[in-house]
Amino acid sequence: MKKTIIFTAILLWLGGFGIFTYKINHFDIDYQTNTDAIIVLTGGRNRISEATKLYNDNKAKYMFISGVAKDITLENIQNTQNIKIKKTKTVEIGHKADNTVGNANETKEWIENNNIKSIRLVTSNYHIFRSLIEFRNHLNDTKILLHPVYSEYIEKKWWTSWQTFSLIFKEYNKFICAYIRSKLY
Fold first, then answer.
1. Model pTM?
2. DSSP class of residue 115?
3. Which one, of 169, 103, 96, 172, lies nearest residue 137 by Cα?
């Protein structure tokens, strides 16, 4: 009986991992829909530059960059990322978050202060599902449009790169933990 439970758990984990790895590499990204705000989570390659392109293309009135280090300004971000934000008056940065749950908390506060009803959530493709869980836990009435970002350093054929496999393996396990936690509360 015990061996059957362990074997079933392993099969479920492996099946879920297969689905997860497929889905993170097969998004249909909606470039047409506008939202009230673009929310970009720091920490991954190309996230801020992709969010800036969307913002400069008028896909939202506001942009919020969550999880910025305490001493970093918007000007620093533009210089280090080699980007130009056209309308900086409606761009804000958050310095409170240091993880995904913190991003959701920080963003919730900003959304409430700015009367935002819909967001485009910009983060890495491997991070998008866990981010969605955390944001849904905090933003019940906010419409969330997912916008995954791909990095040239993350192999789509994840099994060919130990670095990519390790990253996706860890993220999948974090996703499972976030999913279970969301169902318990």
1. 0.92
2. T
3. 103
Positive/negative CA dihedral, 70, 71, 74, 80: negative
Asked if 156 contacts 22 with a C-beta cutoff of 8 angstroms, the reply is no
Q: Does residue 141 contact residue 32 with C-beta atoms inside 8 Å?
A: no
**Residue with the two structure tokens 């836990």:** 137
Q: What is the pLDDT along the chain (185 residues), one digit of tens a residue?
A: 888 999 999 999 999 999 999 999 999 999 999 999 999 999 888 999 999 999 999 999 999 999 999 999 999 999 999 999 999 999 999 999 999 999 999 999 999 999 999 999 999 999 999 999 999 999 988 999 999 999 888 888 888 989 999 999 999 999 999 999 998 87
Write the CB contacts of 55 (distance below 8 Å, at least 6 apart in sequence).
38, 63, 85, 86, 87, 91
Local structure of residue 46 (DSSP, 8 states): T
Q: What is the DSSP letter of 42?
A: S
Please tell me whether residue 35 adopts helix, strand or coil conformation. strand
- Contact, 97 vs 131, CB < 8 A? no
